[in-house]
Amino acid sequence: MAQSSDRANKRRVTSNIVKGSLGNLIEWYDWYTYAAFAVYFSSQFFPKGDPTSQLLNTAAVFAIGFLMRPIGSLVLGRYADRHGRRAALTLSVSIMAGGSLVIACTPGYESIGVLAPVILVLARLLQGLSLGGEYGTSATYLSEMASKGRRGFYSSFQYVTLISGQLLALGVQIILQQILSEEEMVAWGWRIPFVMGAMGALAVLWLRRTMDESEQYAQIGKKNREKAGTLRELMKHPRAVMAVVGLTLGGTIAFNTYTTYLQKFMVNTVGLPKESVSMINFVALFIFVILQPLAGWLSDRIGRRPLLIAFGVLGTLWTVPLFLLLEHADSSFTAFLLMLSGLVIVTGYTSINAIVKAELFPTEIRALGVGFPYGVTVAIFGGTAEFIALWCKSIGMESLFYYYVAACVLISLIVYWRMGETSKESKIEAELENNKTIA
Length: 439
Description:
Blueprint: H1 2-45, H2 51-67, H3 69-83, H4 85-105, H5 109-112, H6 115-145, H7 151-155, H8 157-179, H9 182-189, H10 191-209, H11 215-218, H12 222-226, H13 231-234, H14 238-270, H15 274-302, H16 305-327, H17 332-350, H18 353-358, H19 366-382, H20 385-394, H21 399-418, H22 427-438
Helix pairs in contact: 1-2, 1-4, 1-6, 1-8, 1-9, 1-10, 2-6, 2-19, 2-20, 3-4, 3-6, 3-19, 4-6, 4-10, 6-19, 8-15, 14-15, 14-16, 14-17, 14-19, 14-21, 15-17, 16-17, 16-21, 20-21
């Protein structure tokens, strides 16, 4: 009977994590479709100009979308802490579907003039709101649903699905590049992936409606639920809040640099063909996906801190050489190896950042605590990374950006060095043990 119960519980955990993760995948697919296809639609939404200026405009809109993420993490994080993780995750994917559909249907600048970029901005604000709430709630749900001793492994699937969403966007791009001409991609082909994203988001609504609520949230008492999800309650944990900011700073800049920006860097600076760059990104990110659960599993055995420190040290020392070498890459294979090296390094952050943050907060404030300080940091630093990089290029000082990224990773390294081992001081485990004692 005990073995049968254990198997049933494992199936339930796996089922809920798959359902939550698939929704996460679709949300990130919708988000990264913008970045993947910007090289095609930038000329459609903005006045004619040189390619760098048009990419700079689309990067600015990308950054504006990030500005909504703190608001989304505040609003939907509070909602998740007061009404449940499942309800918040269902709401967030609905909002994302709306944003993608708006982008897919918006006419270009030549048809409606300045309204085109205005509508694009509004749609990205909507998507930023959704994604801001998705991160904290998803990280919390996966961390709470995972079983003891495997939380690092299971929570790593947040970035598995996050990157898979980006891979899916790139995969769609590669297929469309084989089917459509450059002119067709620019004229209307770029709209197809946005329509697909909107339809996919609607499809996962049913999956999220059938998820179980996490045990930790279900056990919150009435008194704790009344104060759940408030900024006042969050501010009772200042060290945890600042730890999330410090954890996130270098990680979000490195991740956005090694993934989203590198695609444009290879086209705009290195001069590689768009089709080759798409394939480089796809293969490198596929390997990156495989590394996430392996690193998450490793963190369950040796702790979270060693992985974070490894990322901090290597990211600080290797970022500048990586870009300097990539500037002079004479083949697609060399560019691929350099990109992959950056992704291997940033795995020390991406694979475990969700569980590390979740272990810092009690249940009644966990979704807001994980999401809000993360959202603020990502909006200020992660969302502006590509814009800063393109601005440095536009003034002829692109290498300044390389040092900027390395410096931010160094700041996070200091945080990693000073912090404790969260797996040994986990609020999640402490609450579960306390509930068992009371029972």
